[in-house]
Amino acid sequence: MTGKGDSRGAARSGELELDDIFDLSWGWRPSVLLLQAHTTGVFDAVAGGWKTAAEVAGKLKADTRATGLLLDGLCGAGLIQKTDGKYKNAEAVERHLVRGATDYRGNILELDKRAVSSWLKIGEVLKSGEPIPKP
Predict the structure, then answer these.
(1) Nearest residue to 70 via CA among 34, 117, 112
(2) I need a labelling partner for 24 at 20 to 30 A (CA). Which of 9, 16, 40, 58 fits?
(3) pLDDT value at position 6?
(4) Domain that holds residue 58
């Protein structure tokens, strides 16, 4: 199996390749970008049209260089678009992940963020046999 870029099927069928293992290992990165962008208000700061990294950083009271790196990562994940050094949210992000949007669905990301914390404790559960304490 050489399921490059599609780790979802890697464990389900066919022969597992090293690339498949790495796809699984690195699969958390887009999720972390998404969750952190939402939590820190990046999508809200980008909302409404094209903005530079400096403009977004100013709204967030954040470092411009770090903001640009995060925005570029979000572009790679398809969540934000970039043209001529300016950024805007993808349409689905603008519609569903900007606070105050008519069809806002970002609350589910808060639940996902909490779930990630629990999943990271699987090793502790394996050793102790005790369930993860409820938050």
Answers:
(1) 34
(2) 40
(3) 53
(4) 7-128
CA dihedral 19, 38, 95, 92 (to 10 degrees): -10
**Per the domain annotation, does 78 fall within a domain?**
yes
List, for residues 15-44, the tens digit of each pLDDT value: 999 999 999 998 889 999 999 999 999 999
Alpha carbons 118 and 87: distance in angstroms, whole number? 33
CA distance 58 to 116: 29
Total domains in the fold of the chain: 1
Helix (H) or strand (E) holding 76: helix 64-76
- Is 69 within the bounds of a domain? yes
Confidence of residue 135 (pLDDT cuts 50, 70, 90): low
Q: State both tokens at 48.
A: 């409404």
Residue 20 lies in a domain: yes
CATH code: domain of residue 93: 1.10.10.10
Is the whole-model pTM more than 0.90? Answer: no
Q: Is residue 75 part of a domain?
A: yes
